[in-house]
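User: Here's a chain of 252 residues. Predict its fold as tokens.
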Amino acid sequence: MLLYGQKASQKEFSEKYPLGRGKELFFWSFIVALLLFSMGGMFSLYEGIHKITQEGTINNPMVGIVILSITILLEGYAFFSCLKEVTANNKFSSIREWVKKTTTLDLLVLFLEDFAALVGLLIALASLLLAWHTGNVFWDGLGSCIIGVLLILVAIILACKVKPLLIGQSPYPDYHVEMQKLLSEIMPDAKILRHISILQGVDTVLVAYKIHPGSENTIISDSIALVNKFEEKVRNKFPEIKWQFAELDYEK
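Assistant: Prediction complete.
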């Protein structure tokens, strides 16, 4: 789903999608959060409650221990590979800040999925060992319940992260101050009156703004030429800004 969303989000603009399909990745990330984590979490809870309430025994625990041990090694390798990629792309002060502010959703979903999977596998191994040692299947059921809660929590975190992006969240950072500085270099008396910036996809931003040229006697053609020059400077400094909609206005 993430691979499809990533591919679809990179399709060229069309008459039907004049601003592109960048939000397609946001949509599929939301579907992944609902299906992979919520349904996985609820099934784990069901399985855990079933084991706790039904009497049973642990059969062939060594098979489970070997499988879980191999899977922990594989999942650990995947997680630390993902963590390395996150660190290389992290523009913020910490991993926590990156999780809160990043719009690279495919990487975020993989990071949280790998983290939840690794922690879940460790819990599964510990609970299986406890059940084997005590001869009480309760511990195996409790481990499944804890894994279910973990997956549901990750689902909630992802859903809360993706929802604002789907409905039109503004990007990080705020471009207004930097754009005003660039405008002052070209039109010293000009001022950005209103400014709107919206994420249209991963590293894809739309900005719309009104510019007061500074003097009501300014020749319109000269102002338009200077605004075009300003737009070029914005594109050069912020390559993620794909669309700019500028309007000259004398509104105070």
